[in-house]
Design brief:
single chain; mainly alpha; elongated
């Protein structure tokens, strides 16, 4: 998993978090373990989702300030739950241990990038990283257009309205003699 970690992606995430929150992260050293130390207590992440959802980082999730491990993990869990409510899919989220135990920091970065992408579609107009999520584009066609489309070849070799090769004989059958 360490080989999947990208320092460039980390730097993008660091910059984005700092721009959104208006604060520098505590540990400015670049690297997987330094980034993990910045986020491990979950406070920065909770402030980030509060800022994206409510416009400021003070209201929203109640952030635990204690240094007890279970309180830090609780902050991370609250962040992940809030991300789900914000529109991220379960597959986009990291597991608490990925961050807290530094098991899969590339997944943590992926979640942050996905959060930035989702923020733009949820009305956030500040700086972003990642890709823009496409908006729905429903199309309505009349019957004439649909009929005309049925006569166009799809470009797929062998396409012939659902026919298959069942019943075809490709040469002599093999006779097995007892």
């Amino acid at each position: 998993l360490n080989s999947k970690y990208s320092v460039e992606s980390e730097q993008q995430c660091r910059s984005w978090i700092e721009e959104v929150l208006g604060d520098k992260l505590a540990d400015q050293e670049i690297g997987m373990h330094s980034f993990q130390r910045c986020l491990k207590d979950g406070q920065v992440l909770c402030r980030l989702i509060n800022k994206l959802r409510n416009g400021d980082d003070k209201t929203g999730l109640k952030i635990n300030k204690m240094n007890a491990p279970f309180k830090q993990m609780e902050n991370i869990e609250m962040f992940l739950k809030a991300c789900g409510e914000y529109g991220l899919k379960p597959g986009d989220l990291f597991q608490t241990a990925d961050l807290y135990d530094c098991q899969n920091m590339s997944q943590v970065i992926g979640t942050i990038v996905n959060l930035s992408s989702r923020a733009t579609s949820n009305g956030y107009d500040g700086p972003t990283i990642g890709v823009k999520i496409a908006d729905e584009n429903v199309r309505e066609f009349d019957e004439e257009t649909i009929a005309a489309g049925k006569s166009v070849l799809t470009g797929q070799t062998g396409w012939n309205k659902g026919a298959n090769q069942s019943g075809m004989n490709l040469g002599n059958t093999r006779h097995i003699v007892d």
